[in-house]
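Technical annex B. To support the medicinal chemistry partners, we prepared a structural model of the target in complex with adenosine monophosphate, based solely on the information shown next.
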Amino acid sequence: MTDVTVEPGSVLGVLGGGQLGAMFAAAARRLGYRIAVWDQDPDAPAHRQSDHSFTAAFSDLPTRKHFSSLVQAVTFEWENVPSDLCEWLEERHRVRPSSAVLRIIQDRVDQKQCLQSNHLPVVPFVAIGAPDQLMDAVKRIGIPSLCKTATSGYDGKGQWPIRQNSDVDEVARTLRTSKRSASRWILEQLVEFERELSVLVVRGASGECRTYPVVENRHERGILRMTLAPATVSVQVTARASDLARQAVDVLKGVGVFCVELFHTADDRLLINEIAPRPHNSGHYTLDACTVSQFEQQVRAVCGAPLGEVRQWSPAAMVNLIGAEMQAVTSGQAFKDLLSLPGAVLHLYGKTVVRAGRKMGHVTFLGETREAAAEPAHRLLARLAALSAVPPA
Ligand code: AMP
């Protein structure tokens, strides 16, 4: 299939204006594109990178029409944008990934069923249609397990662990009174993994795929804390993880950038946790360590341009700056200390409102070896841990 190329000078629309949208916009602008950002939050970082900014609700019809009149192609920076808006835009423009792919990914149950029906290994799960079904689901999946909202969860939000029988009633009560608009949940086995891995896959409209190196992730309280690229796993595990990730994006027939998150268990199984239909926090290292970043790949895939090289030039370790950590390490002596760490490349997202758990920036450390990249990253992590141990004045 030949893919018509949307050329530089055109306007690319991005739904969502967080740091992922901002980094997409920066990559697109470097390639000569113009950008229309739509995010209700006027302080969203991508607005500052945009040629056209929209802050109305996504349901606002005049804004839909105005946005649509400007753009030649559309993408989104996270999966919780309304799929009906993507569908509406798709009747007029190229939207990548498509609304059909977005719909499947937006619902954890649909996503897992799609992968499972294509014989791809996923965490054992049961769909829950009403809080009263939780007990039956626990009987089937067992304890420990993890109940999640089927839609709209991110960074560990909308998740309730079940570690003992007495948790079941409590979680069912929480589901009943949940303010979220959830009407469907999923119960997953709580996997005792050895490590979490992820793989970025770029897929063009022709089905051509490129996979970045397999990376290793560490989470804290459901939020990504650190990524080590490449992962410290065997050649065989690397090959299996890349293969699984590519197959997962293939079965979805996704066009764009996807991140496939995997659990690697002690008995050497790989299970798909979830797929993000966009660049991912665990791929931020590609900005500084690879020939072509995940954000430039998103531009290329959306525009139907040739996909870029995924070559990693240098081992890298990425540490997220979360909430108040950002101010603590970017002022006074701490700022100088941070920038003095070997191989440190700092990225701040320019968010003015600091909230607990909010991703404010990240630091990528480059080193000649994985150990050389990881060592200053661990020093920074130790500093951040010491900060959180100090009670606020
Ligand atoms: P998610 O939003 O589903 O990616 O969950 C965020 C993080 O919670 C994951 O990266 C894991 O660290 C943890 N997690 C999610 N699901 C499971 C599971 N079924 N078993 C063990 N840990 C999980």
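Notes passed to the chemistry partners:
The chain is about 35% helix and 25% strand.
Residues 123, 146, 153, 156, 188-191, 196, 219, 222, 261, 273-274 surround adenosine monophosphate (CB under 6 Å).
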